[in-house]
Design a protein that fits this description.
The protein has 453 residues and is an all-alpha fold. Among the domains are: 1-123, Leucine-rich Repeat Variant, CATH 1.25.10; 346-374 and 389-453, Leucine-rich Repeat Variant. The protein has helices at 2-8, 14-27, 33-39, 45-58, 64-68, 76-89, 95-102, 107-119, 127-137, 140-144, 151-158, 166-176, 182-188, 194-207, 213-219, 225-238, 244-250, 256-269, 275-280, 287-300, 306-312, 318-331, 339-350, 357-376, 390-402, 408-421, 427-432, 439-452. α23 runs antiparallel to α24. The longest helix has 20 residues, at 357-376. The radius of gyration is 37 Å and the shape is rod-shaped.
Length: 453
């Protein structure tokens, strides 16, 4: 009945042709090899696939060359089955074409080709072949250790949507840092997977190519918050001031994570055009944003921000106060002696009326430092509009007023601040505080008096 099966191979029905191939496979004799080879050219994917599997099982050497022609088949399943069939045949003629497959194409096909080459006993003969072989086997990290040689095979993977190690491939290209990886990374920046887009933005920032600025600016509007944040960070790493305007426009982002990264990027770029926006962020509802705004202003180093930073020293958040102190030290290590600090003293004194004891303490300490700086060394004489010596009197008076506060923590903070002033004229008020009802306050008074004596 072989003749009938051969006739069915000519049927117009793909299903009939497929069944005919399966019958020939069951026969398994040498006489069915030629018709099965003819079936490799069938327009129907399932028929070609069945013919490939049949030839791989029969293992006739006549099938090697016809099978090699299917390594470029349009269907992934056919290419995969073809490699498996060639591995089963074990003919060394397949080695050169399989080596070529290892270096390009779909990750699944490359992996199968690498497995087939291992069975055939092939060994890489160059660094390029070795790198491509490792990448095909999925050993991406080991391949990346070879540096530039790994860029091309890894670049093949970063645009393969759905590949399980796509993100890793993108990250490794960023670590290698070769500019030739930029084009595939720009493609990955538009991938449908947010994790891939984020990794691509980060990698582009690490490589530092100017051509990435425009695409990264576009990524500031990505639907994924992590992509937007990473794009902002990458723009800061690139250091191109062309991104300043776009970063400023991104500052109103609804997510604090993005605003923080944008502020850090603007701090790195150190462009004066951003100062007004940075100052506005000192009043952001999120404390992390306020921290980063202060840090960015410190990097900017513009004296015009001193007044706002001094006022931020009484922020409700301790971390923000510490960030502000660092920023002030960068802008002007002697900020306490500036006219901006003197002008801010009145507003700082108002903070003493806050119910938050931490704010009261911070305000008292700021006033103490301004007072101490005003009397410690000659400074540019303030104008009458700036308050003159009234600033010093205000600071001392404010601290002395805090000695009557109901909160013992505030009273103790005021005592410590007055003691650090080193002014013997304060002995009287401090002695009076020795009768405070709180033991810790009395202890602080005794210590302050000891220092003054």
């Amino acid at each position: 009945m072989l003749w009938l099966t051969l006739q069915q191979l000519k049927s117009k029905s793909p299903e009939t042709r497929k069944r005919a191939v399966q019958k020939l496979r069951q026969t398994g004799t040498a006489e069915v090899v030629a018709p099965l080879i003819d079936a490799l050219k069938d327009p129907e994917t399932d028929v070609r696939l069945a013919a490939v599997e049949a030839l791989g099982e029969i293992k006739d050497e006549r099938a090697v060359q016809p099978l090699l022609s299917l390594l470029d088949d349009a269907e992934l399943a056919v290419r995969e089955a073809t490699i498996d069939a060639l591995k089963s045949l074990g003919n060394p003629e397949a080695i050169p074409p399989l080596v070529a497959v290892v270096q390009r194409g779909h990750p699944n096909v490359r992996w199968r080709a690498a497995q087939a080459l291992k069975v055939l006993g092939w060994q890489p003969k160059s660094e390029a072949e070795n790198t491509a072989f490792m990448v095909a086997l999925g050993d991406l990290e080991r391949a990346a250790l070879l540096g530039k040689a790994a860029v091309a095979p890894l670049a093949e993977l970063v645009t393969q949507a759905g590949y399980p190690k796509q993100v890793m491939a993108v990250e490794l290209l960023g670590e290698i840092g070769d500019p030739s990886a930029v084009p595939p990374l720009l493609t990955a920046l538009a991938d449908k997977d947010g994790l891939v887009r984020r990794a691509a933005a980060n990698a582009l920032g690490r490589i530092g190519s100017p051509e990435a600025v425009g695409p990264l600016v576009g990524a500031l509007k990505d639907i994924d918050v992590n992509v937007r944040a990473t794009a902002a960070s990458a723009l800061g790493e690139l250091g191109d001031v062309q991104a300043v305007e776009a970063l400023v426009q991104a500052l109103p982002d609804a997510r604090w994570e993005v605003r923080v990264e944008v502020l850090e990027a603007l701090g790195r770029l150190k462009d004066a055009r951003a100062m007004d926006s940075l100052l506005a962020c000192l009043n952001d509802a999120d404390k992390e944003v306020r921290h980063q705004a202060a840090e960015a202003l410190g990097e900017l180093g513009n004296p015009g921000c001193l007044g706002a930073l001094v006022l931020a020293l009484v922020d409700p958040d301790q971390g923000m106060r510490q960030a502000t102190a660092r920023a002030l030290a960068k802008v002007d290590p002697c900020w306490e002696r500036t006219s901006a600090a003197q002008q801010a003293a009145a507003s700082i004194r108002a903070a003493l009326q806050q119910k938050d004891s931490a704010i009261q303490f911070a305000a008292a300490e700021v006033l103490r430092r301004i007072e101490q700086a005003a009397g410690a060394a000659p400074a540019p004489p303030p104008s009458a509009a700036e308050g003159g010596s009234a600033t010093s009197r205000t600071a001392v008076a404010a601290l002395l007023e805090l000695l009557k506060d109901r909160d013992p923590n505030v009273r103790r903070a005021a005592v410590e601040s007055l003691g650090r002033m080193g002014d013997s004229s304060l002995l009287g008020p401090l002695r009076a505080a020795l009768s405070d009802e709180d033991a810790l306050v009395r202890e602080a008074v005794a210590k302050a008096l000891g220092g003054l004596r």
